[in-house]
Design a protein that fits this description.
Elements: E1 2-5, E2 8-10, E3 20-21, E4 23-26, E5 29-31, E6 39-40, E7 46-48, E8 72-75, H1 82-96, E9 100-103, E10 107-109, E11 119-125, H2 132-144, E12 148-153, H3 165-168, E13 173-179, E14 182-185, H4 190-206, E15 211-214, H5 223-236, E16 244-247, E17 264-265, H6 268-279
Helix pairs in contact: 1-2, 4-5
Length: 296
């Protein structure tokens, strides 16, 4: 690969859909593409070339559901048989009165079972859940039933198993800053910010998701990046689409909310109070609620 400036390296090779590839760092190490759209053999295996979806929008008349109609069901794809298993349940959920199905993170992670928050390849759906085509078919089936679909995305850290970025792109992280899950992602650097903003746009445009839930943005600790993310998404998405952007932010910062920005944020305080009352656990997130939780 030839250097192209600003830390980028480029190469051109003949290939087609299904071709497998990796990036060789040295004689002993070959790693997946950090923007791989599909993996073969897990997060340590081969990246696979995927053809773009033939049509940009499967249902051009679909606009999504307005936020005031949102009755959200959050689901873990791994517990329901992956993308195909979820698709089989959509009709029943619609009959129940659900209007929005929110998938917990689907990004590729180490192993075959995970909550999804240890992802290391944000562009690749986890192999154990299904393929890019089956995920898009799930979204299309939901739309046919009048259901919106949201996705939980994790941009504040990478999981520990299969994260090779630090081996060859140390500038992707801040060496002097950390999150509870590892090195802080350097979203103040343009290539890093672009990596995540383009990922958000991929889910909304290529797959047709109707919204995103951004995990633990307080750990990103960069309001300028969050504001830019919302601006670029709103600028790219058709104005007649109902696309909902939701934050998880333990700082409960209402300044991020409003027209043209984010629609809502999780009320983690309510959850944390209930958790302490029901379990007695007072570590980590729950330490601030250990003293008289019922009065909070």
């Amino acid at each position: 690969m030839a250097p192209a400036g600003d830390g980028w390296f480029c190469a051109t090779a003949p290939c087609g859909p299904g071709a497998r590839y990796r990036f060789r760092l040295d004689a002993d190490r070959a790693v997946p593409d950090p923007a791989s759209r599909l993996q073969s053999g897990g997060v340590h295996g081969w990246s696979v070339v995927v053809a773009p979806f033939a049509d940009a929008v499967q249902r051009p008349d679909w606009r999504g559901r307005p936020w005031e109609e949102a009755v959200i069901l959050e689901v873990h794809p791994g517990t329901l048989g992956g993308f195909d298993g979820i698709a089989e349940r959509l009709e029943g959920w619609a009959a129940l009165g659900i209007t929005v199905v929110q998938l917990m993170p689907v990004n590729a992670f180490g192993g075959t079972r995970n909550w999804g928050y240890d992802g290391v390849l944000p562009y690749a759906p986890a192999e154990s859940y299904g393929t890019p085509a089956s995920l898009r078919a799930l979204v299309d089936r939901a739309h046919a039933l009048g259901l919106s679909v949201m996705l939980d995305v994790v941009y504040n850290h990478f999981g520990p198993d299969g994260n090779y970025l630090g081996d060859y792109a140390s500038g992707f992280f801040h060496a002097d800053a950390h999150t509870p899950w590892g090195g802080a992602v350097a979203v103040d650097r343009e290539p890093v910010a672009r990596f995540f903003i383009d990922n958000a746009l991929m889910w909304l445009e290529d797959y047709g998701f109707d919204g995103l839930r951004f995990d633990a943005v307080h750990a990103i600790d960069d309001d300028a990046f969050l504001d830019r993310m919302a601006r670029e998404i709103r600028a790219r998405i058709r104005p007649d689409r109902h696309v909902h952007l939701v934050l998880e932010n333990e700082r409960n910062d209402a300044e991020r909310l409003g027209d043209g920005r984010y629609d809502a944020q999780w009320n983690d305080d309510f959850h944390n109070v209930l958790h302490v009352l029901l379990t007695g656990e007072t570590n980590a997130y729950y330490a601030d609620f250990a003293d008289r939780p019922a009065e909070r």
